[in-house]
Amino acid sequence: MIEIRNNFLIYLQTQRIEKDKNYDDALLAILEAITETQTYLEDDSITKRNRATELRLSKLWNTAAIKIKNLDPQLASELKYKGLYWLDQLNLSRREIYQKGIALRERFEIQVSQVSKRNKR
After folding, report:
1. Distance CA 109, CA 90 (A)
2. Which of 17, 22, 61, 65 has the most CB atoms around it within 10 Å of its CB?
């Protein structure tokens, strides 16, 4: 009986470590996407769009969406839409960007902090 309990405790601990690693990986992917997007948008030397960079941003956002999918499906959906935005270069107004929940500033930073807090529980 003690061996079964010990094996179960080891299993639970392994699951917790794996869950923590998944959260960490997801948060790092989101932060990388945010940082790279912000860098691209703030680059004053860009006079015209850089399609290669935009495709890379799409990949970063989609990777982040995949990594957070099982942990926060709503956030994953918004990240995926952000990836589609950069992939297809949807012509959205500022208002539409905010309405769809894909604005870069504050929105994702707030959600990332909320995901982090939920993980700590």
Report:
1. 23
2. 61
